[in-house]
């Protein structure tokens, strides 16, 4: 009997429909764009549409239909530690994680203008595709107060090695407007 009384007490009829208006907070998200960056694209690189997190994307053609990809990604803040990023990229190349003591074997630091840029160079030990070709990745990490810029070249080892000087020149050409 108690449960029936409780049930009926919650079933009181309300007069009419009640409408509430809730103020929507104004949120402005600044998505990463190329608009505040400039760079000089090497003539041999084919520009691709930027998509997803990429604010720039390029393809490099090699012999035997080989291709390497260059991507430019901007992330807010530090975007993870150097060791965490290196180990994530090592995983992409099917390499084992490394300790912070070993970072010096794959990371070099260079000054480009006023920026200090970390360059990471990694090479697979096994083929990642059916073509039995080893892969290589070179990443330039440019950290600014506003975030981190990752410029990555990845593809067949020989093609990446053949384009490393051009890649370094490209990274040096990136400027903030």
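Q: What amino acid sequence fits the structure above?
A:
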């Amino acid at each position: 009997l108690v449960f029936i009384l409780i049930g009926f007490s919650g079933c009181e009829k309300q007069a009419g429909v009640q409408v509430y208006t809730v103020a929507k907070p104004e949120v402005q998200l600044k998505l990463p764009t190329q608009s505040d960056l400039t760079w000089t694209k090497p003539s041999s690189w084919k520009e691709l549409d930027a998509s997803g997190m990429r604010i720039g994307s390029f393809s490099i053609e090699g012999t035997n239909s080989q291709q390497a990809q260059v991507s430019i990604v901007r992330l807010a803040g530090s975007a993870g530690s150097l060791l965490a990023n290196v180990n994530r990229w090592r995983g992409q190349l099917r390499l084992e994680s490394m300790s912070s003591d070993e970072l010096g074997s794959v990371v070099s630091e260079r000054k480009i203008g006023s920026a200090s840029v970390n360059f990471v160079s990694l090479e697979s030990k096994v083929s990642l595709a059916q073509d039995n070709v080893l892969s290589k990745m070179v990443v330039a990490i440019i950290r600014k107060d506003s975030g981190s810029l990752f410029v990555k070249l990845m593809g067949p080892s020989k093609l990446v090695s053949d384009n490393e000087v051009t890649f370094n020149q490209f990274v040096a050409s990136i400027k903030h407007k």
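Q: And what stands out in the fold?
A: Confidence is low (pLDDT under 50) at residues 27-33.
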